[in-house]
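Office hours follow-up: a student asked to see two folded examples consecutively, so here they are.
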Amino acid sequence: MADMQRGAGREEPAGKPTPRAAAGVDYTRNGNDSGGVGPKLLKATDVAAKRRHVNRSEFIRQALQRHLKHLHELEMEERERRAYLAQPQREEEYRPWQEVASWPEP
């Protein structure tokens, strides 16, 4: 077996990279196939996933979905902000609403 190398749970002929190694996944850094995630973050992920009764993959999937949704919301807010800067609201558009929304004098 001197001419074989281990990678991702199976052996490949020496000199031929495993698919994960060819894709640039560094699973030798901390002894697991975590894609370069440090052991502390990996442990915290596992603890949080267990509390939510899901596995690590599902927890990460949900976290990514929430983060991507958050990024989309930030992008939409920025687009709206730029639109208002490009075409500011005129006073006659908001003045009637201010009068209705103001508190009456005692």
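And the second, which I mentioned at the end of office hours:
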Amino acid sequence: MDRGWSESGQLGIVVQPDKMLPDLYKQLGVDRGNVISNIISKTTADRMNLQPNDVITEIDNNSTSNWTELLKSLEGLKIGKVIRVSFIRSGQRLEVEAPLGPKIGEGVYKFNSAGATDR
């Protein structure tokens, strides 16, 4: 049934663009992953206490070594589903779990395999 909003959840992060990753990987001492540049307030990522420069490597044991893999790992997950995020912070591998929250600003952004684009 079309309710006029999405039932899928959102992590609530902005990641660094691909062209910046090689230098960031060197600075952060990693060889793959999605480097967080910003956390959207009051989202799952905020509740997980994820921070800028954390490097997400897996979601629910699915590799997220690039933006496409990150999106695929979240695709179709419903609001309220508890997810496990594996990430690296200051050289230490960490894991956190939390339920996915609703998308912030529904109708403002469209998320697809190409990334987020303005509507």
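Two things to take away from it. Residues 13-102 form a domain with the Pdz3 Domain fold (CATH 2.30.42.10). The radius of gyration is 14 Å.
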